[in-house]
Amino acid sequence: MAWDAKAKRQSGGFYSTLGLSRLFLGCLGLVLLLLPVFPGEFQVVVGAEILIMGLFATSFNLLYGYMGEISFGHSAFFGLGAYTTALFMRAFQGPTGEIGYVPFLFSVFMSIPVSALGALIVGFFCVRLTGIYFAMLSLAFGELLYYIVFSWYSFTKGDDGIQGLMPPHYLQGYTHYYYFALIVVAVTLVLLWRVTNSPFSYVLRMLRENKNRAAFVGVNVRTCMLVNFVVAGAFAGLAGGLWGPFQRSVSPTLLGSMQSATAVFMTLMGGPRFFIGPLVGSAIYTALNAYLTRFTVYWPLTIGSIILIFVLFLPGGILSAVQGWIRASLGHRPKSPARMPAMRE
Amino acid sequence: MPDNKILEVIGLNKRFGGQHVTKDLDFHLYEGDQAAIIGPNGAGKTTFFNLLTGRHRADSGRVLFDGREIVHLPSHLIARAGMTRAFQVSNIFPRLTALENVRSAVQAQMGRTLDLFSRADRVGAAEADEILRLCRLEQEQNTLAGELSQGDKKKLELALALAGKPKLLLLDEPTAGMSPEETRETMALIDHLNQALGLTVLFTEHDMGVVFNHARRVTLLHRGEKIVEGSPQEVRENETAQRIYLGEQQ
Fold this sequence. Notes:
By secondary structure, chain A is mostly helical. Chain A is built from 14 helices and no strands. Chain A has a single domain (about 1-330), classed as Orthogonal Bundle (ABC transporter involved in vitamin B12 uptake, BtuC).
């Protein structure tokens, strides 16, 4: 049984491979591939949103779950990527708004280097701090970028945002765009999975656990933090680049603090200790948002209550609870319960 | 006497506010030596280590390590140059396993910190296993470091220092908090590292039994100043040493 072997081999590790057993991965892949087969278009729209926001939240978790620093300004890079793609698409679009495949893909791709550059500049300052100061400075930079985009009307159209971002003909249907997003996000997540199992990711874990000691075993703390900040920013930017053409528009709220908070919520709901935690969190958050708003207009109240429940009763996220149940049913001694829920002591 | 100075400290000074915690300290260490620094609490032993490893900046003075000036270098470059340390209070990575602790430190020493695409479990794994075996932690390799016993945490502390492939190993009270059995094991390991592998070792210790049995040279610090230096025999027989420190120890 793949589960058992995995659980045994990994039993000591803080990071678990939960959810990446072949069986689970196969099921997940099948569901994602067949999602558009079900009648109706709504679940496809929700599915694409889950994937894109899941990528955004996963990039956030490089900072939080792996490196142990919380950023409240991560949406700055999501928004930077979204605006980069939007502005490039605007430049390439013909008089009736049509765009070729190559210019479109190029526009999406450009979200990566531009947001990476943004993250390099912001990160240069942020990595000088840790803990609450890191969080506050990232928030300040996020708000700063928000106001630049909000106020620079001639370049960004300010509060109006940029509309009419039609992807090329074949990708205009939501099902087709869904598959496009699925391919990009899947490839990206495989890449990130490699990164999160590399020596670099263990440096991040050392930084999370004990920055001071990391320096004494030969880690250049600031450089490694900065590289991670740039990697996280670049992938957030790619998520933003996928978002614009999906929504057909971008607006300054993509850089706002609420957008950053969404990544935090998703990560906490899914489980920051797990690679796919943010993606699972995105599925829960986005699906709740999509389906509950049919029944209630009190969405903020509802999601607020749900987050409250998670924080109080499932502090390690849903995957942490699932892992606990699986271990219990396999007869594994539960790892000291005090450690399981708490992300940070 | 070997002639190659691996460490040479000249006129080192450090003040914290009005406290002059390191006063014009001269110190040297020959390659292959095993030496101890002793002194009452507050003598400046840990500060001295902090100055050597770049945790604190010296106000003045020079530190030559392996012929190279290091007094201005940041901690991680001093570690990579081959001077690593084990801390007095175990200072480990609690939510990584013992193996991950050591392996990650080995990878840092190999300069692989920015390797984003290799598999971490395949880089430096053999070295990490070897170090765990040397430190007698192989049984505990999959235990989270934070859940190890106090003695094992101190062994892991030593293992982390060894992971840096040091030329000079600084040990701040390596046996503090250990049982007599563990103390014996640890000191035997340190002797082995020094004698069989030629590692230069400098340690601080309060247990005079450990000091006089395992150090070939002893330096007594008091209020940031070097009081006596010499063989264990010389220091033991020194009157000032007796008065300041050894008297109260016995």
